[in-house]
Amino acid sequence: MNSRLVRFLVGAWLPILLIWLWWTLSADSTNPYWPPLEQIWQRFLELWVFEQVPIHVLPSLRNLFIGLAIGVSAGILIGAHIGLSNLAARFIIPVVDFIRSIPSIALIPIFIVFFGLEGEMRIAVIAFATCFPVLLATNQGVRSTDPTLLDTVRALRFSPFQILWKVRLPAAGPQVFSGIQLSVLIGFIVMIGSEILGAGFGIGAFAKITADSFLIVDAWTSTILMGLLGYVIYLIFRAVERFVLRWYYAANKLEM
Amino acid sequence: MTVAIHIDDVSMTYVSPKATNHVLEKVSYEVEEHHFVSIVGPSGVGKTTLLRLLTGLMKPSGGQIVVDGKAIDGPPEGLAVVLQDYTRSLMPWLTVEKNIALPLVRQKLSKEERRSRIASSLEEVGLTGNEKKYPWQLSGGMQQRVSIARALATRPSILIMDEPFASVDAQTRFGLEDLVLKVRDDFGITTLMVTHDIDEAVYLSDEIIVLHGKPAQVIDQIEVELEFPRTQLDTRNNPRFTELRTRVYEKVQGL
Amino acid sequence: MSVIKRFPPALISMTVILLLWQWASGLESMGSMLPSATTTLSTLWTSLQQAATWQSIGITLLQGAIGLVLGVFIAVPVGLLLGLSRFGYYSTQFTLNFLRVIPPIVLIPILLLILGPTSQMAVFIVAWPVFFIMAMQTAYGVRDTDPVLLETMRCYRLGVARQIFHARIPSAAPFMALGLRICVVVAVLGSTVAGLIGGAPGLGQDLYYAESLGLTAETFAIVMLLGIIGMVISRLVEWAQPRIVFWTAGSRA
């Protein structure tokens, strides 16, 4: 047996066992809250492969994607530039720190006040909430560039702007990505939260409405779908990170 | 003359799915009680492997190591170690005195006895007054002294050192070498040391074993008959010292 | 520069933001959407004098604390066992990571059915992520124990139990402390989320009512209060962490 197969088997037996346990233990369940997994699975196929996907999943993901794109780019831009100036950082960072301390989900009511319950509100609140972790991580990363590296490029007569984009930001890459990872998680939480709160479309709204109407099997399918989406989004993030930071993983001989 | 450690036809082969690495071939040697023996040889020859076999952390694939008339199976009673990586072998979350006290928990000592052991060990290595400090508050040389004090506090009969002074600067190194000689004098511990440094081996040892070849064998045993007490200046300026280091050097290079 | 020396920059920028806020709230286009800074602050001030507010704060923190303690107490032994066994560690990596990256908010609709809008639900929402974070951190930390340290202990014939208590657990402590630091923030977040989205008692629920009744000043005041609580807690944890694992490089600076 080759080592990849062994690795797969070692990782896979537990989830397979858990799913099998759930399947068999729930098979004869009459408890309305714990319907048989088989029922949930069949309903899952009916709903999410792929009939309801364009209505309830794609718009959510589009909001998340646009919100994240705005939030992360703003975070990197602002974080990188205030990283250059001690004075600016001393004024701005405390404010950022305060806003970041607000549980991200609590921002939703404020944004509802301004934008109502529609898609714009969701994009706006995702963008706002995801901006800060990236901003702080970028600011810290840009400030902690290796001084030897900076001396070297200064000797090569790079302008400060060139230094920022060619040296400081790439060197800060790993830190920026750890900020983005947090942002992706927050973005996902805020996406689901805004859907549950602002009734209407979206996977979170679907889960809430079906649960409130005692469509328990449907509620279970959407819970599972949300879980899977959360994991897929994490996998996509990892793939992007591995690609952008391939120099870092190669240099540190980290496992891809 | 009593034999403290009997290395009896020891062979070692590492087997991994990718390759088989035959490191030691029928190495035999008898270490006399109270002697200071250095193991030298080119890099990668298997010195550290031999040392790990002596500590009982690994089992030889052939032959045996006999201590106190018994083939060892795991670290033998009365063994103490000083490793190269002092930062990694001392516990950063314990103070100097607690680091020294840790191996003592196995010995049933009264509180006063334990305290006096710690105090006398620290005094021996010249660190009295640093009991409450943490290892990382001390310099590299001082940390290595703590390792030595920890070894001494157990009142060992055998001390095994793996390149103990490789990570400290040259000045500190001379001080630690003299400290080790003094400790050996005061306690009569049988000491085995692996080193890269031929001068150090000659300066400290009663005997030097040279490992060479692949798989490695003992190609020479050199008696260092330089008289004790040795001093950094006189001993190292002694023409006999120069002759011995030349001989060891040639053997290590395989000349 | 002399102004900066006399006043901390944080104070200046906070003042500037409050002034901007005050100005913006008076604009025609804002209508009644944005309460003025003064109204919000005075609402916050009066609410802080009411026992009900403190009760909500207390419930929010208590739900977070119970969930945190519960999660940690289950996770640490599990993580320890997983860290000691190679097979255990690699068998559970995928499953634990899968469940860790799924935020517990997805469980709220289904939990509402099973547990209802209760404090138990909030505790579960907190304990769930805490368990996965702490189990993984502990297992990783235990595995990360320096082999040189363990070999040194074996040379001195110290047994497995002593190796666990004197080397494995202290080695894992910095990872556990970092996990705990994350978990404290997660606990406050989870307790608030459970209230706001799931109707569990506490500040989250107050916020939900304030928003749905159109009480904008209250809404803003509660959000500010949550920010202050979050900040105080992060500062406390930042202060405590290097004092608990005092030997790690970062805390020696």
UniProtKB/TrEMBL annotation, chain A:
GO BP term, example: transmembrane transport
Cell membrane listed as a keyword: yes
Mode of membrane association: Multi-pass membrane protein
Entry's localization field: Cell membrane
Signal peptide start-end: none
Pfam family, one: BPD_transp_1
InterPro entries assigned to the protein according to its UniProt record, in alphabetical order: MetI-like (IPR000515), MetI-like_sf (IPR035906)
Record keywords: Cell membrane, Membrane, Transmembrane, Transmembrane helix, Transport
Species whose genome carries this gene: freshwater metagenome
Keyword Aminoacyl-tRNA synthetase: no
GO cellular component, one term: plasma membrane
Listed name of the protein: Unannotated protein
Domain ABC transmembrane type-1 per the UniProt entry, residue ranges: 53-241
TM spans (from-to): 64-84, 91-115, 121-138, 184-207, 219-237
UniProtKB/TrEMBL annotation, chain B:
Molecular functions per Gene Ontology: ATP binding; ATP hydrolysis activity
Leader sequence residues: none
InterPro entries reported for this sequence: AAA+_ATPase (IPR003593), ABC_transporter-like_ATP-bd (IPR003439), ABC_transporter-like_CS (IPR017871), ABC_transporter_ATP-bind (IPR050166), P-loop_NTPase (IPR027417)
All residue ranges annotated as the ABC transporter domain in the record: 5-238
Pfam family, one: ABC_tran
Keywords linked to the UniProt accession: ATP-binding, Nucleotide-binding, Transport
UniProt entry tagged with the keyword Nucleotide-binding: yes
Gene3D superfamilies: P-loop containing nucleotide triphosphate hydrolases (3.40.50.300)
Name listed for the protein in its UniProt record: Unannotated protein
Protein species of origin: freshwater metagenome
TrEMBL record, chain C:
PANTHER family xref list: ABC TRANSPORTER PERMEASE PROTEIN MJ0413-RELATED, ALKANE SULFONATE ABC TRANSPORTER-RELATED, MEMBRANE SUBUNIT
Chain segments annotated as transmembrane: 57-82, 94-115, 121-142, 178-200, 220-237
Principal location: membrane
GO biological process terms, semicolon-separated: transmembrane transport
Topology of this chain in the membrane: Multi-pass membrane protein
Keywords: Cell membrane, Membrane, Transmembrane, Transmembrane helix, Transport
GO CC list: plasma membrane
SUPFAM superfamilies the record matches: MetI-like (SSF161098)
Name of the protein described by the UniProt record: Unannotated protein
Domain ABC transmembrane type-1 stretches: 57-237
The keyword Transport is assigned to this record: yes
Keyword Acetylation found: no
Subcellular location: Cell membrane
UniProt lineage: unclassified sequences, metagenomes, ecological metagenomes
Pfam families, per database record: BPD_transp_1
